[in-house]
Amino acid sequence: MNLLSNVLIEPNVLTPEALQELQEHARNSSTTDLSVFDPDKTNETGETSWIVDKDIRDTQIIEFGPLFPKIEDLFKNIVKHIINPFYGIEVSDSEVPQLLKYNVGGHYKPHIDGRSIWVAPNGDKIWRKSTDRDLSILILLNEGNGKDFSGGNFMFPELGIEIPPKPGTLVVFPSDQNYLHGVSPVKEIYNEVGRLSIVSWARVKGQKTKEEEDKELLEKYGVC
Ligand SMILES: O=C(O)CCC(=O)C(=O)O
Ligand SMILES: [Fe+2]
At 194, which CATH number? Predict the structure, then answer.
């Protein structure tokens, strides 16, 4: 299988006016630090757990506020007209999109969005669903390469791809272990707001849910 052929890159999914509006909104809004998946706690408690760890991820989230209905419409359109036809699938549902901001030093170390390693009682290592995500959806909102900011590239280190952000570019890829990805540190910003992106994750009809996969693991290993 060619892993690269499952990375969808589509430029200009947002109009210049919509980009401007999001930029303005982000500039005038307060932010909250984001957390990362915590495999130790999750294994210990059996509940999906998250922690803030700035060594792994230094990213803030901004509420969409009054822009939310427009973003919901945008995602509906993207799913119907771009994602479903590209993969020949049907997205069943997707998570509430998040507006992300990376200030100077902001970054996200290479990670996998939907799976993590689980060691079964017999020592088998299994890439198990950590959360119910089949596809990762990203929209870049402003420009790297020293224009709005420097650094802050989106990368797939194992696939050897690095994408310097361009405003309005959509990137979609499977949320599994083949698509390790991250954001390199933002070095400097020139736009008073930093690197901005929108992310969401979708489930695909016909793919096993986390609940179904966990049930199979329980049957096979007796614990999960
Ligand atoms: O902001 C980005 O470009 C990527 C963010 C990401 O990988 C994530 O939120 O899982
Ligand atoms: Fe991610």
Answer: 2.60.120.620
Range of the domain at 60: 3-221
* Ligand 1 shell residues, CB under 6 Å: 100, 108, 113, 138, 154, 181, 183, 197, 199
Return the structure tokens found at 170: 């959509």
**Is residue 198 within 8 Å of residue 100, measured between CB atoms?**
yes
Which residue(s) pair with 94 in the sheet? 202
CB 118 within 8 A of CB 196: no
Q: From the alpha carbon of 113, which atom of ligand 1 is closest?
A: 10
- Please write the tens of the pLDDT for every residue from 185-201: 999 999 999 999 999 99
Atom number in ligand 1 closest to CA 140: 3
Q: How many domains does the chain have?
A: 1
